[in-house]
Each structure stands twice: as structure tokens, then as C-alpha cells.
Amino acid sequence: MKMKGMMFNITAICKFLLPLKYARRNFVCIFPIIFTTTLVACSRDQAAPPPVETQTDFRPIQVKQEKPPEIKIKDKVSIDAPVINQLPELPRGCEVTSLAMLLEHAGIETDKMKLAEELKKDPAHRVIKNGKVHFGNPHNGFVGDMYSFSKPGLGVYHEPIQELGEEYMPGKMVDLSGKPFQELKIPLSDERPVWVIINAEYRELPDSYFQTWETGSGPIKITMEEHSVLVTGYDDKYVYFNDPLTGKKNKKAPIGDFEKSWVQMGSQALTYKVE
User: Fold this and answer.
1) Can you give the residue ranges of the Peptidase C39-like domain (predicted)?
2) Which residues, including other chains, have CB under 8 Å from residue 182's CB and lie 6 or more apart?
3) pTM of the predicted protein model
4) Could you read off the pLDDT of 152-174 as tens digits, one per residue?
5) Sign, Cα dihedral of 215, 219, 223, 228
6) Which of 1, 45, 212, 246 is 20 to 30 A removed from 97 (C-alpha atoms)?
7) Are 261 and 201 in contact (CB under 8 A)?
8) Backbone CA torsion sign across 105, 106, 109, 111
9) CA-to-CA distance for 265 and 252, rounded, in angstroms?
């Protein structure tokens, strides 16, 4: 309605000004002034209400992160874990037997024979070419025969054991391989035993105990003294472990010698985590 009023005013003004003697001279000057005045009046009538100022707080919301409680390393530890003898069924089955002990301590029901069957195997056969032994790689799967010393064999390293453990405890197996020996004390202080690869003499071995094999994934240095146990504790002098070869619980070895043996065999260790 206000726009129609504005149009009417302009038309009336034009009719009034045209007859004037000086219309042609002054109309151009007068009309913009009147038009502008009328338009300004319309604009004021239709002006939007002043904007409402709002304040927006862009500060990030502070969410308190709950940190898992730190495990204090104890001076000495002794864990009551089940002991299982690998003999007589598994002469070379120390690794799966130690895994069976670890799983049982975690509350998982299984047995060494079932684990031995399920464990990944390296299919390579032992052959000698140009004076060099060609055989499997224990990082890839169990090498040789686990059930008899009358057939060639060796054992298995931590990767296939961890893979098998994950089938029983999905997402809970913890690989400590390559870490300092001191870090094994963390799960032990939390009452969780540790699966390890060492040698059967629990000390650092001379080079004469080792040989190099050719495998499908490259040469590897091995020893027939390779062994696996479940570490159950320690103090300032000894490491304690369940030995599947003797069936002895909390067997002990000097902590310094045991550590050197473990490092020499590649610092391989596994445990599990709890929620």
C-alpha cells in the first residue's frame, strides 16, 4: 500500500509541474529531491528491526580423559600359574605348551594337543644343497615335526604363537617382543605371566651352538637349543618360570643369565591384557 502511495505522489507532482513555465528547466532538479525524500520515507517505514546481538562461545569443551592406572613395578613377584608338561606327547612342543599355560591362567580352557594341531606350520622340508641346510622359518610357522625326535624339526617363534592366541583371546594378546627386559616386569607385577623364547640352558650360548639355514624368506640363524617357558616371577637374583620340558613349577635361573639368553634369542615375549 505504501508503494502505491508513493507512485500517486509522483504522478500528482508531475501533473502539477508540467504546466509551469520553467518546468523543463527545473523539473529534473526538483523531481529527484522529491523522489528521494519520498523514497527515504518509505525506507524508514519498512526498515527491519535492529539486529539482535548474540554471543557465541567457540571455546572447545574440555573433556577429562581418564588415564589407565599405572602399574607399579614390584621388587619381587610370584604368580601361581598352572604348569603343563609337554612330554611325552610333544617332544618339540614347548611353545604351544607354554601358550596353553598362559591361556589357562587367563581363564581359557584348552589343551596342548589341540593347540599343536591348530598352530600354523611352515611346510618346508629339510634338504641339504651344496652343503647348506634348507628348511623352514620359525617366524612363519612351526618348522618340522613336533611329535617325534626321529624326524627333522625345530620349533616356532612368537608370531605364529600370537596369531594362535588371538583365536582364543581376540584383541587381548600383547606382543612385548623387542622391548627391554625390564618391561616384562610390568605385566608380571600385574599378576600376568609372560610367554618367552629362550634356550634350554637359560644362559647366553657361544656361537658354536648356532647355525644358518636357508629358508624361503631368506637365511636365518638358529640353535637346536631353542626353548620356550612361561615366566611367573622374579626377585633381585632370579627369574622364576614354569618349564614345560621338566614339568617343574616356578623353576629358577639367575636373572642376568636368563635375560642374556632371552636377548640372544631375539627378545621374544607375549602376554595378555585385561579390560
Assistant:
1) 80-244
2) 73
3) 0.76
4) 999 999 999 999 999 999 999 99
5) negative
6) 212
7) yes
8) negative
9) 19
